[in-house]
Amino acid sequence: MKTDQIITQAYVQLRPQVVRYIGTRVNDPDDAADLAQDVFLKLLEHSHDGGFLPEQVRYLIFTVARNVVNDYLRHHYVRREADRYMMDYLPKSDTSTESAVIAADLAAVEARCIAALSAKRRAVFELRRFEGLSAAEIGARMGLSTRTVENHIFTASGIVRGYMRACI
Question: Are 109 and 167 spatial neighbours (Cβ–Cβ below 8 Å)?
Fold first, then answer.
């Protein structure tokens, strides 16, 4: 029997057990299902390195599942610790004069770029950027199709981003 067939058969038979095994450790059913899928994908990726016997597959699956869970939990705890550190030690906001000057400079650069856009594209972009209107609302206000508005927003955003990157 081919290795892919062995893994497919194991997937059909063992997937619910693997999901339960992982679920008891990560306490999130959606993550458990995703991680179980990762276990079988890892097996498929490494099955081409060399085959394995049907008797070995069950043990291999649960070994890979244990490693996937350990990686997930390690990442989870490191991320949680980093979030806690940032909340405790980093300033919530910066009201320094330097930050205000930088923000004003960025706003001026953005305004120059927006001013260089065509009139219709500039109007669409400003309605989206500064008034927060949706493409449908802008289209209704300006008498344009939603698709045209979306095209103007996409193009203008790319131009502004490129200009900002070049200036900074």
Answer: yes
What ranges in the chain are assigned the alpha helix state H?
3-26, 29-46, 54-89, 97-115, 119-131, 135-142, 146-167
28: helix, strand or coil: coil
Q: ∠ at Cα 57 (51, 62), nearest 5°?
A: 130
Dist. CA 106–CA 94, nearest whole Å: 16
In this predicted structure, the answer to whether residue 21 has a pLDDT above a threshold of 90 is yes
**Are 122 and 154 in contact, with CB atoms under 8 Å apart?**
no
Write the pLDDT tens digit of every residue in 149-160: 999 999 999 998
Cβ–Cβ < 8 Å for 120, 153: no
Residue 2: both structure tokens together = 């081919």
Q: What pLDDT, in 10s, does the model give residues 95-138?
A: 678 878 888 888 888 898 899 899 999 999 999 999 999 999 99
Radius of gyration of the chain (CA): 26
Contacts of 136 (CB under 8 A, 6+ apart): 146, 149
Instruction: Identify whether the C-beta of residue 163 lies closer than 8 Å to the C-beta of residue 115.
Output: no
